[in-house]
Fold each of these.
Amino acid sequence: MKVGDLIRQISTGRIGIVEEIDEDYYGARQAFKIYRELPRGKCIRGNMVDGFGPTKDGIRDRVTVCWTDGLPDALDSKDLEVISEHYSK
Protein backbone atom coordinates (compact mmCIF):
# COMPACT_ATOMS: atom_id res chain seq x y z
CA MET A 1 0.00 0.00 0.00
CA LYS A 2 1.30 3.44 -0.91
CA VAL A 3 0.03 7.01 -1.13
CA GLY A 4 -2.37 7.42 -4.05
CA ASP A 5 -3.61 3.80 -4.11
CA LEU A 6 -7.30 3.11 -4.56
CA ILE A 7 -8.51 1.11 -1.56
CA ARG A 8 -11.67 -0.53 -0.23
CA GLN A 9 -12.71 -0.85 3.40
CA ILE A 10 -13.30 -4.57 4.00
CA SER A 11 -16.18 -4.23 6.46
CA THR A 12 -18.29 -1.66 4.61
CA GLY A 13 -17.10 -1.76 0.99
CA ARG A 14 -16.46 2.01 0.87
CA ILE A 15 -13.97 3.19 -1.76
CA GLY A 16 -11.26 5.80 -1.17
CA ILE A 17 -7.74 7.00 -1.95
CA VAL A 18 -4.77 6.75 0.44
CA GLU A 19 -3.59 10.22 1.52
CA GLU A 20 -1.03 9.41 4.22
CA ILE A 21 0.55 6.37 5.89
CA ASP A 22 1.90 6.43 9.46
CA GLU A 23 4.14 3.36 9.61
CA ASP A 24 4.30 1.15 12.71
CA TYR A 25 1.51 3.07 14.48
CA TYR A 26 -0.53 0.21 16.00
CA GLY A 27 0.40 -2.99 17.77
CA ALA A 28 3.48 -4.75 19.05
CA ARG A 29 5.53 -7.79 18.10
CA GLN A 30 5.53 -9.37 21.57
CA ALA A 31 3.33 -9.27 24.65
CA PHE A 32 3.28 -10.62 28.19
CA LYS A 33 1.32 -13.88 28.23
CA ILE A 34 -0.14 -16.32 30.73
CA TYR A 35 0.28 -19.82 29.36
CA ARG A 36 -1.06 -21.86 32.28
CA GLU A 37 -4.76 -22.57 32.83
CA LEU A 38 -6.52 -20.14 35.17
CA PRO A 39 -9.70 -20.98 37.06
CA ARG A 40 -12.84 -19.30 35.85
CA GLY A 41 -13.79 -16.10 37.66
CA LYS A 42 -10.30 -15.34 38.98
CA CYS A 43 -8.68 -11.95 38.50
CA ILE A 44 -5.57 -11.73 36.31
CA ARG A 45 -2.67 -9.87 37.92
CA GLY A 46 0.64 -8.64 36.54
CA ASN A 47 2.65 -11.06 38.67
CA MET A 48 0.91 -14.07 37.04
CA VAL A 49 2.77 -13.60 33.74
CA ASP A 50 4.89 -16.62 32.86
CA GLY A 51 6.22 -15.78 29.41
CA PHE A 52 6.46 -13.62 26.32
CA GLY A 53 4.84 -14.45 23.02
CA PRO A 54 3.99 -13.04 19.61
CA THR A 55 0.87 -10.94 19.19
CA LYS A 56 -1.94 -11.90 16.83
CA ASP A 57 -1.69 -8.98 14.37
CA GLY A 58 1.85 -7.67 14.96
CA ILE A 59 2.76 -4.10 14.07
CA ARG A 60 0.41 -2.34 11.67
CA ASP A 61 0.19 1.02 9.91
CA ARG A 62 -2.37 3.80 10.34
CA VAL A 63 -3.70 4.91 6.95
CA THR A 64 -5.47 8.23 6.30
CA VAL A 65 -8.06 7.70 3.55
CA CYS A 66 -9.99 10.29 1.54
CA TRP A 67 -13.38 8.64 1.00
CA THR A 68 -15.54 9.20 -2.07
CA ASP A 69 -18.65 9.54 0.13
CA GLY A 70 -17.39 11.47 3.15
CA LEU A 71 -14.61 13.14 5.08
CA PRO A 72 -11.06 11.72 5.41
CA ASP A 73 -10.58 9.13 8.14
CA ALA A 74 -7.64 7.30 9.76
CA LEU A 75 -7.93 3.48 9.84
CA ASP A 76 -5.87 0.43 10.71
CA SER A 77 -4.15 -1.07 7.65
CA LYS A 78 -5.62 -4.53 8.37
CA ASP A 79 -9.12 -3.12 7.73
CA LEU A 80 -8.27 -2.02 4.17
CA GLU A 81 -7.71 -3.78 0.85
CA VAL A 82 -5.80 -2.30 -2.09
CA ILE A 83 -7.90 -2.56 -5.25
CA SER A 84 -5.83 -0.46 -7.67
CA GLU A 85 -3.34 -3.37 -7.95
CA HIS A 86 -6.10 -5.73 -9.12
CA TYR A 87 -6.93 -3.57 -12.14
CA SER A 88 -3.42 -2.47 -13.13
CA LYS A 89 -2.33 -5.95 -14.25
Note: The mean pLDDT is 88.
Amino acid sequence: MGFFDLFKPNNQDTLSRDEKEAAKILKDIFHGYQNGDPNYIPNGVEKLAIGLYYLAYKRTNKKVFRLEDALNPMTMLNGNFKGVHYVGVYSAIKTTIEKTCNNPVMLRAVITIQECEQAILVVLKTSATSISKI
Protein backbone atom coordinates (compact mmCIF):
# COMPACT_ATOMS: atom_id res chain seq x y z
CA MET A 1 0.00 0.00 0.00
CA GLY A 2 1.47 3.30 -1.09
CA PHE A 3 1.30 6.67 0.62
CA PHE A 4 -1.37 8.01 -1.74
CA ASP A 5 -3.50 4.89 -1.22
CA LEU A 6 -4.30 6.28 2.22
CA PHE A 7 -6.42 8.97 0.59
CA LYS A 8 -8.40 6.64 -1.68
CA PRO A 9 -11.93 5.79 -0.60
CA ASN A 10 -12.05 2.18 0.58
CA ASN A 11 -15.71 1.62 -0.25
CA GLN A 12 -15.66 -1.04 -2.94
CA ASP A 13 -19.39 -0.50 -3.57
CA THR A 14 -18.86 2.87 -5.26
CA LEU A 15 -17.51 3.62 -8.69
CA SER A 16 -14.61 5.89 -9.47
CA ARG A 17 -14.82 8.52 -12.21
CA ASP A 18 -13.20 6.15 -14.73
CA GLU A 19 -15.56 3.34 -13.77
CA LYS A 20 -18.56 5.64 -14.26
CA GLU A 21 -17.20 6.50 -17.69
CA ALA A 22 -17.08 2.76 -18.45
CA ALA A 23 -20.76 2.55 -17.46
CA LYS A 24 -21.58 5.30 -19.98
CA ILE A 25 -19.69 3.38 -22.67
CA LEU A 26 -21.62 0.22 -21.76
CA LYS A 27 -24.89 2.13 -22.11
CA ASP A 28 -23.79 3.32 -25.57
CA ILE A 29 -22.90 -0.25 -26.53
CA PHE A 30 -26.35 -1.43 -25.38
CA HIS A 31 -27.90 1.38 -27.40
CA GLY A 32 -26.04 0.19 -30.50
CA TYR A 33 -27.14 -3.42 -30.02
CA GLN A 34 -30.75 -2.39 -29.39
CA ASN A 35 -30.79 -0.38 -32.62
CA GLY A 36 -29.37 -3.29 -34.60
CA ASP A 37 -25.92 -1.74 -34.97
CA PRO A 38 -23.49 -3.74 -32.81
CA ASN A 39 -20.61 -1.77 -34.33
CA TYR A 40 -22.10 1.56 -33.19
CA ILE A 41 -18.83 1.90 -31.29
CA PRO A 42 -16.24 0.07 -33.40
CA ASN A 43 -14.67 -2.72 -31.33
CA GLY A 44 -16.60 -1.32 -28.36
CA VAL A 45 -17.01 -4.60 -26.51
CA GLU A 46 -13.33 -5.48 -26.87
CA LYS A 47 -12.13 -2.03 -25.84
CA LEU A 48 -14.50 -1.94 -22.86
CA ALA A 49 -13.36 -5.41 -21.78
CA ILE A 50 -9.72 -4.32 -21.89
CA GLY A 51 -10.56 -1.18 -19.93
CA LEU A 52 -12.47 -3.14 -17.30
CA TYR A 53 -9.59 -5.60 -17.00
CA TYR A 54 -7.24 -2.75 -16.09
CA LEU A 55 -9.82 -1.03 -13.86
CA ALA A 56 -10.25 -4.30 -11.95
CA TYR A 57 -6.54 -4.19 -11.13
CA LYS A 58 -7.06 -0.86 -9.38
CA ARG A 59 -9.32 -2.73 -6.95
CA THR A 60 -6.51 -5.12 -6.01
CA ASN A 61 -3.09 -4.66 -4.45
CA LYS A 62 -1.37 -6.49 -7.29
CA LYS A 63 0.99 -5.13 -9.89
CA VAL A 64 -0.68 -4.92 -13.30
CA PHE A 65 0.01 -7.82 -15.64
CA ARG A 66 -0.34 -6.31 -19.10
CA LEU A 67 -2.42 -8.29 -21.56
CA GLU A 68 0.19 -7.66 -24.23
CA ASP A 69 2.69 -9.60 -22.12
CA ALA A 70 0.27 -12.32 -21.05
CA LEU A 71 0.90 -14.76 -23.85
CA ASN A 72 4.43 -13.69 -24.70
CA PRO A 73 6.43 -16.88 -25.42
CA MET A 74 9.48 -15.47 -23.62
CA THR A 75 7.42 -14.94 -20.48
CA MET A 76 6.28 -18.54 -20.62
CA LEU A 77 9.82 -19.81 -21.25
CA ASN A 78 10.83 -18.11 -18.02
CA GLY A 79 8.22 -20.21 -16.22
CA ASN A 80 5.55 -17.54 -15.75
CA PHE A 81 2.30 -19.17 -16.83
CA LYS A 82 0.10 -16.76 -14.89
CA GLY A 83 -0.49 -14.83 -18.10
CA VAL A 84 -2.85 -17.52 -19.30
CA HIS A 85 -5.00 -16.98 -16.20
CA TYR A 86 -5.03 -13.21 -16.72
CA VAL A 87 -6.17 -13.70 -20.31
CA GLY A 88 -8.92 -15.89 -18.87
CA VAL A 89 -10.12 -13.00 -16.70
CA TYR A 90 -10.16 -10.70 -19.74
CA SER A 91 -12.02 -13.34 -21.80
CA ALA A 92 -14.61 -13.76 -19.04
CA ILE A 93 -15.22 -10.00 -18.98
CA LYS A 94 -15.58 -9.85 -22.75
CA THR A 95 -17.89 -12.89 -22.88
CA THR A 96 -20.08 -11.44 -20.14
CA ILE A 97 -20.50 -8.18 -22.03
CA GLU A 98 -21.24 -9.96 -25.33
CA LYS A 99 -23.78 -12.34 -23.79
CA THR A 100 -25.52 -9.52 -21.98
CA CYS A 101 -25.71 -7.37 -25.12
CA ASN A 102 -27.10 -10.27 -27.16
CA ASN A 103 -29.64 -11.30 -24.52
CA PRO A 104 -33.13 -10.92 -26.05
CA VAL A 105 -34.50 -9.53 -22.78
CA MET A 106 -31.82 -6.85 -22.69
CA LEU A 107 -32.46 -5.97 -26.33
CA ARG A 108 -36.08 -5.08 -25.50
CA ALA A 109 -35.48 -3.44 -22.11
CA VAL A 110 -34.93 0.23 -21.40
CA ILE A 111 -31.43 0.39 -19.95
CA THR A 112 -30.63 3.18 -17.51
CA ILE A 113 -27.22 4.50 -16.54
CA GLN A 114 -27.79 3.26 -12.98
CA GLU A 115 -28.26 -0.29 -14.26
CA CYS A 116 -25.07 0.04 -16.30
CA GLU A 117 -23.20 1.31 -13.27
CA GLN A 118 -24.46 -1.63 -11.23
CA ALA A 119 -23.40 -4.06 -13.98
CA ILE A 120 -19.92 -2.49 -14.14
CA LEU A 121 -19.63 -2.73 -10.35
CA VAL A 122 -20.47 -6.45 -10.39
CA VAL A 123 -18.02 -7.16 -13.22
CA LEU A 124 -15.24 -5.21 -11.49
CA LYS A 125 -15.77 -6.91 -8.14
CA THR A 126 -15.83 -10.36 -9.73
CA SER A 127 -12.79 -9.65 -11.87
CA ALA A 128 -10.82 -8.14 -8.98
CA THR A 129 -11.55 -11.24 -6.91
CA SER A 130 -10.38 -13.48 -9.75
CA ILE A 131 -7.22 -11.44 -10.25
CA SER A 132 -6.45 -11.54 -6.54
CA LYS A 133 -6.61 -15.34 -6.58
CA ILE A 134 -4.04 -15.69 -9.36
Note: The chain has a mean pLDDT of 88.
